[in-house]
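Exam review. A common question shows you a sequence with its C-alpha cells and asks you to describe the fold in words. Practice with the pair below. Do the first one on your own.
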Amino acid sequence: MSDSTPGPEPESPELPQVAQEAGPAVPPSSGAAGDAPREPAAPAPLGVPREPTGHADVDALLDRLGDADHLATDGHVEVYEDVHRGLRDALTALDAPQGPPAPRPGTPQTYDRS
C-alpha cells in the first residue's frame, strides 16, 4: 500500500431500526375549525427570590423588579430601564470621592495642633 492510495474505510456499527407506529398526523394547533383560539397567559410572577444586599437603595431597586411580575411583557422594558438607571447611578456614586477634598499639589498644608 502506498501513501497515495487510501485504505479501506472503517466499518460503522449498524444502528437498530426504529419501528414507526402508524397513526394520524396531528399538526400543531393552528386555530383551525374546532380548535378554540388560545389566549395569552396572564402575567405571573417568576418566583425568583431576591435576597437583600444590605444597601437600602439597591434593595429598593431590586424590589422594583417585582413590579414586572404583574405587567404584560411589553411593560417590562420600562421597569428594567428604571432599575438599570438606578443601579448605574448607585455604582457611579461609589466612584465619587468620599470625605474632604484632597489638597492640591503645591498648596501648603496646615495641621490642627489641638
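Now try the second one, then compare your answer with the model answer below.
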Amino acid sequence: MTFAQGPLLWALVVVALVAVGAVLRARKTNIGLRRQNSELHQQRETLQRQRDELHVAYTGLTHQHSAELAEVRKDAEEETKAVLKAAVRTLQGLADEQQVVIENAQQKYGDDPGILADLMAVDHANSQFGRRAQGIAVLCGGWLGRRETVASVFDVARSAQGRIRQFDRVRINGQVNFSVVSKAVEPVAVVLAELLANATNYSAPGAPVEINIQAVPTGVCLIVDDAGLGMGQEEKDRAAALLAPRAAISLSSLGIPPQFGFAVSGMLAARYGFKVSVDSVSPYGGVRAVVLLPDELLTGDVPSPPPVAAHHDAEVAALPRRQAPAPSPTPLFPPVAQPIAAPQPTGPAATTAGGLPKRRRKSPVSVVPSTEPGQVRSNEETASRLGAFQRGTRSGRDMTTMEGPEFQ
C-alpha cells in the first residue's frame, strides 16, 4: 500500500462511518415519526369519537329542549285560552243580559220612533260586541250558542249584516227556497259577518258590498263581493291556510293587533262542515269570498215567525192613531217590510234515501224587503216597521244558551 492510498482509504472509511451514522439516525427518526404518526391517528380517532358523542348529546339536548319548549308553549297556549274562554263567557253573559234589557226597553218604548232608533243603535253596538266575543270564544275552543229552530238563508245573511259596523253598505241580492238547519245558523252568520267586516274595512268608504245568494248543485253559495284593492298571493296563501286549518290555531300567530276573521271562519267551517274561500276576484276588482253550504246543512222547512214579534205588532196596531202626527226623525235603520213566512206544507215531507228532506221550490221561506217608495206613515207605523226590521235582523241569532255541544 502506497502513501497516497492510505489517506484515501481512511477518507472512505470516515465517509462510510458517517453514512452509516446518518442512516441509523434517519432510521431512528423514521421510527419516531411513525410512532408519533400512530399516536396522532389514535388521538384523532379519539377526538372523532368524542366529537360524535358530543354531536349525539347536542342533538339529544336540542330535541329535548325543543320538546320541552313546545310543551311549555302548549301549556301556556292552553292556559291563555282557558283564561280568555272564562273571561269571554262572562262577557257573553253580560251581553245577553244587556240584550234582554234592550229588548224589554224596545217593547216598552217601541211606539216612539226616536227612542226606538236610539235603542236600535245600542242594540247594533251590542251585536258587534257579541260577535267579537263569539270569535274569541271559538278560537279558545268554546262553542257558539245553541239554536232550536231553522232560519232562512236570507234571514241568516241579514243577521250577519246587522252585526257589522258599516251595515248600511251591504246589499243582499237573490233568494233561495231553503233554510239553514238549526245547528248551523249561528256559525254561518258569524262567518258571514266576519267576511262582511273584512269587505267593508278593506274597501273605500261608501263603496257597496254585495251578498249574492245562489243555489248550486251541491248546496247554496253566499257570495260576498267588495270593491277593495284585493289580496296578494302571499295574503291569499295565508288566508287559505287559516280557512282550512290542519291543526289548532295559535293565538300568538294572529299578529298584533290580532286578525280574528279568517281564523274564526276556518275553525267554524271545519267544525260544522261547510267551506269558505277568498281566492277569487270580485267583478269590481276586489275580493270575492264564497261560503258554500252543502245539502247536509240545508232543509226545506219553513221557519215559523217568533211569537214575541206577533204580540208586539198587535200591541202597536192597537195603539190610538194621532190626528196630526209630528214628522218622525230619520231612523237609524231604513224601514223595510216584515218578512212573510210561507205556509207550512200539509202533506208528509218527502225525504231522500239518506233521510234528508228534499228541497221544495214551491214557495220562498222569506221575502226580500221591497224597495218601492211608500207613503208617509204615522209614528206608530214607523215604530212598528223599525221593530219588524230589527226582529228580522235578529231572527238568525236568537239562541237559548251560550254554551253547548256541537250537535244538539
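Model answer, second protein: Strands lie at 151-152, 170-173, 179-180, 209-216, 219-225, 275-281, 287-294, 298-299. Residues 12 and 18 are 10 Å apart (CA to CA). Full marks require stating both points clearly.
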